[in-house]
């Protein structure tokens, strides 16, 4: 059922924007006389579904979750490192992205705004369609609000001061970061009011379809936006709403969150739907969709172990060592280590049908190195990742994240004892002892540090660590910054303001009045 979401519009709307010196926005927007899509589209329920599917389609291309966005989210954290030969990628983790070369970050920026534009098309036009199924209409509009909120979330979070398109226009002025978060929150609120808990109990064209945004996904991201803006009271209330839905639970096997064998499971609030069997075999690099495009991801080959892919991203030794700090109740190493990292494990470890120690025996550097295991097709069904076509869904928001963010919200609003309960849920799956017994009576400050540790081990290589570092203000704390430098040498090149990416120069040139982010 999830493949129905891929039927997004072929030949989406074209706008010819002609610039002169003394005109208004309405004068600038002209229809392409060779494309009558605007006149003939937005008439039926099917048109509305296709329109919102087009907005989902922007999640699948190189600028977003096919490759670029995971790199932008992962590489600045102390859980990852990069020795990529490609300078645009190598420099992300060294806080040295080039303002004159928008490779990777500029592709992401462009695609976020493509997705926003498509969502705005839905919001502007679907309300005007006479649809017999009012529930379907509300769900489509709710999904458009969610998707616009999600793309704006990334733009505001990664680029700081950005335009906030909420209607179709020729130019969009740059807004402050505070205004950006306000719009993100408004969109997720609107989405949460319109979306169902799931699509299993609805009727209509979207009945039973997996991969569509739900109330839980909208509330989860709404809570996250509150948390990122330090509105802990609203974050606490919103995360509790997600918990009280009774829809989500942690899966027994942690690794099931990162393979193609248990996708859209009970722990997943929202994930990007990739598949080897949908569409063609070409990769979706960006721009207008082509008929040959598949719906696969290049994340696996980008992060893959040496000789099985490009090895552009690797775990840090700091991450590996931190997994060793606390044994499970069975006196074993935290099982999340083996689900996250390939290494020369005593007793052996298999990758792509090979024994790690045997395969790398001739190369001591590789034998003693660390490689990514999350999101790898490495359990024996594939020899390597060199076809670039991973079908593993990207899990953007997991219930474990909600539980730990709720614990953080409790701690920040003065209920430190209450935080223990929700941390325990996540630790229990890993087999770790009850924190209330091993570390009773933590203060708000020491619990804050503990939550940092818990999140570090639960979410590495999932795009959360640097978001946490930035929102906690660690880069502005000399003691914490020195600590980060001791954990990951890439932090030695951090400069104030480089926690954000530069605004692409093309956007500055084309959007009058746009100011570049500080330090670029």
UniProtKB/TrEMBL annotation:
<protein>
    <submittedName>
        <fullName>RagB/SusD family nutrient uptake outer membrane protein</fullName>
    </submittedName>
</protein>
<comment type="similarity">
    <text>Belongs to the SusD family.</text>
</comment>
<dbReference type="Pfam" id="PF14322">
    <property type="entry name" value="SusD-like_3"/>
</dbReference>
<keyword id="KW-0472">Membrane</keyword>
<dbReference type="InterPro" id="IPR012944">
    <property type="entry name" value="SusD_RagB_dom"/>
</dbReference>
<feature type="domain" description="RagB/SusD">
    <location>
        <begin position="267"/>
        <end position="520"/>
    </location>
</feature>
<feature type="domain" description="SusD-like N-terminal">
    <location>
        <begin position="83"/>
        <end position="227"/>
    </location>
</feature>
<dbReference type="InterPro" id="IPR033985">
    <property type="entry name" value="SusD-like_N"/>
</dbReference>
<dbReference type="GO" id="GO:0009279">
    <property type="term" value="C:cell outer membrane"/>
</dbReference>
<keyword id="KW-0998">Cell outer membrane</keyword>
<dbReference type="InterPro" id="IPR011990">
    <property type="entry name" value="TPR-like_helical_dom_sf"/>
</dbReference>
<keyword id="KW-0732">Signal</keyword>
<feature type="signal peptide">
    <location>
        <begin position="1"/>
        <end position="25"/>
    </location>
</feature>
<dbReference type="Pfam" id="PF07980">
    <property type="entry name" value="SusD_RagB"/>
</dbReference>
